[in-house]
Amino acid sequence: MLTAALHYLELRCAAKEHEEGQPFPVTVERLAGIWHCTPRYAKQIIRTLSGIGWISWKAGLGRGNFSSLALLADADAILLQEVKLKMEQGCVQDALELMNRFGGHAAKEQFREWMSRRIGFSTQVVQEAAQDTLRFPVYRQIFTLDPGEVYYAFDCHMAGQLFNTLVEYNQANRRIEPCIAHSWEKSDDNREWTFHLRKGVMFHHGKELNARDVLFSLNRLRLQPELFKGAWMFQDVNEMEALDAQTVRIRLREPNYLFLRILCTIPASIIPAATEGYSEKDFAIRPSGTGPFRIERHGEGICVLEAFAQHFRGRPQLDRVEILILPGLEGERFPEPDWSSVMSSHGDASNRYQKVLKEGGAEWMDLETGFSCCNLLVFNQSKKGPQNHPYFRKALDLLINRNRMIDELGEDRLYPAFGFRYLPGERAEAAGKSPSPDPIVIRELLNASGYSDEMLRLHVNSFHCRDALWIQEQAGTFGIRVEVEVIDRLEDEENREQTLKHDVRLFGSVLGEDEVSEIQMYLQKNYLGSAFDEETAMAVQRKVTAVFREPEESKRQKILAELEALMRETNAVLFLVHKKNNTSHHRTVRGVSINAYGWLEFHKIWFQPHGAQRAAEP
Questions:
Q1: Which domains can be identified in the chain, with CATH numbers?
Q2: Is residue 591 classed exposed, middle or buried when 0-12, 13-18 and 19+ CB atoms within 10 A define those classes?
Q3: Which secondary structure element, helix H or strand E, spans residue 545, and what is its range?
Q4: pLDDT score recorded for residue 489
């Protein structure tokens, strides 16, 4: 039916000036042009559409003469039927392409309402058992599920559902706890670590994990720094060995008091050593891990996770997660559905979150989160240009009025940023009260920097495009020419050359409340690495090394604060605004918690039906 529907929708689009049911003259040759086919095939299409009653056709006499055509079917109804069918088949990408190509405002609103009823929690009986499913949309691509290559926060979150690490970091009590390793010990000098692995930890493909998998996973990053940006995490490792199938020993060159915390990170996830039949590309799409969920499907605009029944901590209570991928600008062209059971403001540009929360009353419960995203401008010091001069960077810093940016762009931009994290208190208050800079000062800085109308190339992903365009406009008022180029993944092979051409990048930094995520910003090349000239790079390396060697947390925090101050003093990085994530959930959804990446921990949530809720109430 789709072929007939597509032909009718193309015809309706080409003849939109004609009312439904009203005959109008047309030639077969004209129809062949609309359908991009031969006149002979156009006649076949006409017979098909006439046969199902969607058109009325009266052929003209003689070759080239006009025929009479009337459109009888409701194009919106046909479009909605086909789009719904595509969605139910899991072909999200095809469904959205149809809707965005042929759907008007009314059709899109009907589709949004239909989608809204399908978003959130649902329970269905599958093979005589209740299956709890969480379905929700995201307005970004999943670029990779390979834990060694994850870069964006959502990719990290997804990898965290599929994989486990030797040990894990508990955000609530800020302690490191057992995971794949049930216990460990270290030498007195903090240079030798021995990990004892759990028995019976299974990969999704059915193989049992052993020490060989641990060595393979960590050496994969450590020995291939040219392929994996996270290789810096294992720079202190001297050697690793498997003492037996369940025991791993790691020796460090120097003591590293954050090494155990490093082993909690997503890049340190344990993957199977034997990946026969898997290419690196295949593994990035449908990997096999040990996590509480496994990949059931990934492609065509949908990613489906299913509970892993053999997980060593027990299967999740949630049976299935369906993620509808609506990437890039699709979220602007297609309205965002309301959440029916779990809502998050992360990435919500529609403000529907606040509307549903207000109308829902006591049925909705707020959840405090520590998640924060900080938007940054990072300059490319490896390329010659105006960004090399500190006066130019200072001028750009001064002309970006953060409070004005928040007022004009709104949405989830909440606070001016003066560091990676939002810190309520004296420093933020003092900075927020500072007077607006004199335009004369900005122009003097630009003159002193030698700026002479060069083009500043700004790269940004589609998620932060509005911020980039706003900065472009502000810079233009001072005669700075800015070219904005939207590239969603600079790390892709086809975009790699672009990394040599950009002068500045704008992206969002998502940090957990710990030291390793902050150090990652400085040492990982695809974060702040390009912002440092030789002198700054050496200073950064010295201070980070000092952090690794320092046993006292308070002293490590002091060194990191000095590093952040260096970023502000040199304007190597411009901190823009903080974005806050607010999460609410329906009272029937239990176990809701937010991880360091600002997303729901799928394996912790479960659904309590309304009936059970009422029965439990006094």
A1: 2-73 (1.10.10.10), 130-138+284-370+586-616 (3.40.190.10), 164-270 (3.90.76.10), 372-580 (3.10.105.10)
A2: middle
A3: helix 534-549
A4: 63
Quick: pLDDT tens for 404-438: 999 999 887 888 998 888 776 534 454 555 556 78
- As a whole number of angstroms, the distance between CA 198 and CA 265 comes to 19
Beta bridge partners of 123: 132
Contact 301, 590 (CB under 8 A): no
Q: How far apart are the first and last CA of the chain?
A: 54
Cα 564 to the center of its chain, rounded Å: 25
Which amino acid would we find at residue 267?
A: P
Residue 180: how many CB atoms within 10 A of its CB?
23
Q: Of 318, 261, 298, 330, whose CA–CA distance to 145 is shortest?
A: 298
In 3D space, the residue among 455, 145, 402 whose CA is nearest the CA of residue 294 turns out to be 145
User: In whole angstroms, how far apart are CA 481 and each of 64, 179, 465, 486?
Assistant: 56, 52, 17, 16
pLDDT in tens, 158-190: 999 999 999 999 887 889 999 999 999 999 999
404 CB-near residues (< 8 Å, 6+ apart): none
597 vs 80, 178, 390, CA distance in Å? Answer: 35, 21, 33
Spatial distance between the Cα atoms of 302 and 256, rounded to a whole number of angstroms: 41
Q: What is the DSSP annotation of 427-438?
A: HHHHHHTSPPPP
* In the block, residue with structure tokens 């072909």: 91
CA 572 to the chain's CA centroid:
25
- Each residue of 217-261: pLDDT tens digit? 999 999 999 889 889 999 999 999 999 999 999 999 999 999 999
CB 225 within 8 A of CB 237: no
- pTM to 2 decimals? 0.79
Query: And the tokens for 558?
Result: 């002091």
Rounded to 5 degrees, what angle do the CA atoms 90, 37, 14 make? 75
